[in-house]
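Structure, all two chains, one model.
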Amino acid sequence: MCASSVIPGTTLGATRRIRPISGAATGQLARQRPAQPVALTEAEAIRLAQAGNAAAFEFLYQLHGRRVYALCLRMVGNPADAEDLMQEAFLQLFRKIGTFRGESAFSTWLHRMTVNVVLMRLRKKSLPTDSLEETLEPDAENSAPKRDVGAPDLRLTGAVDRVNLERCIEQLPPGYRSVFVLHDVQGYEHNEIAGIMGCSVGNSKSQLHKARTRLRELLQEELRQQAREERKAAKSPTGSLD
Amino acid sequence: MHCKELESVLEAEGLEQLSKDARLHLATCGACQGLLADFNSITATAKALPAEVNPPDRIWISLRAQLEAEGLIKEPVEGSEKASWWESFVAAWKPRSFAAVAAAALVVAAAVYVKRVPQNGASDVAKKQTPVESLRPAQPQVAAVPPVTALPANAAPAQGSVPSKTKELAPSPSESASFTLNQAELDVPNMQLAGNSQVDAALRQNLRTLNAFIAECELRLKQNPQDELAREYLYTAYQQKADLLAAMMESGRGEN
């Protein structure tokens, strides 16, 4: 639907082919081979986008859009909000692209903007709907995760599926969720996450550990719930018929 | 090493490069073995989740329009390259008469209006006559639309009492708008839309793109009638299609 015919398939980080746009913005690149598609790197696309080149904007969008969308989707858990947030993140990015000096990686810059946009939205959304637990523990993300003393230590090996995990990720506090998604799902390193989140590497590691611990608790709770339901079904008169 | 210390190690060093002390503790502590196994299970499943998800195409279309509107995308200098569909769209649209566009847009607006009225008033219409309801008989734009006049929606007897059967038979605004636009589209295939074949092709491509987008929105709405975002996109797409058809027809008249 979008002008994907202009910019064929993409692989993140790879050099892609793009038609040169005539005019001063394309500089030497276009002058050398005006009618042929040329290879465009991310750095060149950024330079062209800073000059207002439409194809360069689209190139950058196509290059990073899928990761940004996945991040938004996991952070908010619903496609309509994710679309909205993705558009907002890219809009902010393109508005500020003139100020990008390459001091950090472009993807880090973009992800930082995305995470900020998402967290801002989640903060706004959560204002009127704070749960009692969150009210009682305003600093939940910085405190150690709770341990259920005496709870059976259920082994998750072989019991965690993707659907369960996605559901539990949605229940994480936003800060934990961001770090977990960036590290364990999207594969960023702690130093990159620190750049994206604007925190220290140690803080990123700590948040990740707490996120995993919380996820373990949530998944164990799911297993318990499942076991309870199975027991109930077995006890009920119709249970044996199912 | 104690369990608490192992947890600190896991927090600081991650799950992979464990020290000798940590491994010694793990060998003798079932609880910590379970913790590590669970963490490994969680990270393995998380790695299997897709790190990239294809966003719907409409995001770029909408973003691009916003960039255009804000002047962040600058007009390319005329050159030998074939213009993209959007550039052709903008180029083709600009010189058109706004009157024709507005007329087409009115049709869509009327269809949207029809939807809003029953939505707001039909459920509790018997209880309360709202100001919106009192406007019901005044729908001249809709009366001009063939499918609506053909159906009993306009034949509703009196304001404030829409029988449920009539409501079922009345076309939805999507149907009305879709029908109206499809009727307008009938003349397009045989029309020479522009002197420049590239612009002609771009216009037709734009129409196909919009039709595909409309179909996607309609499908989504059919699956989830409460999807307000899809509804909004659909109405925007109808509006765009009306604009585009108006531009095409005016261009066709000018050329033929």
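Residues 3-48 of chain B form one domain.
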